[in-house]
Amino acid sequence: MVTDPLALVLLSALFALTGGWFAVQTLRPSRWPERLDHGLHLLMSLAMLTMAWTHGSSVPVWPQLVLFALSSLWFLGRALWSPGQPLWSPGRTGHAATSATEDASVAWLPWFHVVMTLAMVWMLAVEPPEGGSAHDHTAARLGLVPELTGLGLVALLLAGTALSVSAAVHARASRAPHHRPGGFDVSHTVMGVGMLAMTAPALLG
């Protein structure tokens, strides 16, 4: 649970924004893998929103752990099945990428999805018992392995968020058309920022 009022408002706005965007994308006509991709991101947004507002014990943890562990396997399969292809390439959405450069610029994206779902699993796994808050962790309480795992995930979230920002800037500056849905890069940037804001305090608290 986030106790700072300003942080709570900002995080609520972030996850409401990403949740709304992914909900719209889930409802748009597309192939079922794309709908599942967006639906899982919608569930992540809702879970993070719930985590920000409630104590860890208020919502059952094990169903969420199973859901996001399976989600990470799904995104891992997506990343390995068509390596180097963006989520809207012919093998995934039926839209051809505009160039080899665009393909290369988003080859990391499926792996960012893997990192985000693994970060969800990590946060749920280290969730404090009733009476604690999601940001009351300390390195001593977490232990060495969870702490190192969390640090690795934070580093990867930072990298993925930075790449999302770069992709958004590149898409805006480029004159070449692209087939990514409007707000695609921004939504991933916002999602990354929100997840960092929830994950990092668990290590630094």
Give a structural overview.
Helix 1 (5-27) runs antiparallel to helix 2, helix 2 runs antiparallel to helix 3 and helix 5 runs antiparallel to helix 7. The protein has helices at 5-27, 32-53, 61-81, 100-105, 109-125, 139-142, 144-173, 184-204. Helix content is 70%, strand content 0%. It has one domain (5-204). It is built from eight helices and no strands. The protein has 205 residues and is mostly helical. The longest helix has 30 residues, at 144-173. The protein is globular.
- Percent range for helical residues? over 70%
Q: What percentage of amino acids are in beta strands?
A: under 5%
| Overall geometry | globular
- How far do the termini sit from each other? 13 Å
The residue ranges in which pLDDT falls below 50 over 5 or more consecutive positions are 90-103, 131-140
Major sheet size, sense and barrel closure: none
Task: Say what oligomer this is.
Answer: single chain
Organism: Auraticoccus cholistanensis
Protein name: DUF5134 domain-containing protein
InterPro entries: DUF5134
Pfam families: DUF5134
In short:
The protein is an all-alpha fold and 205 residues long. The protein is 70% helix and 0% strand.
Question: Which descriptors would you attach to this protein?
Answer:
single chain, 205 residues, mainly alpha, 70% helix, 0% strand, globular, transmembrane helix, transmembrane, membrane, DUF5134 domain-containing protein, DUF5134
Ordered list of secondary-structure elements with their pairings:
Layout: H1 5-27, H2 32-53, H3 61-81, H4 100-105, H5 109-125, H6 139-142, H7 144-173, H8 184-204
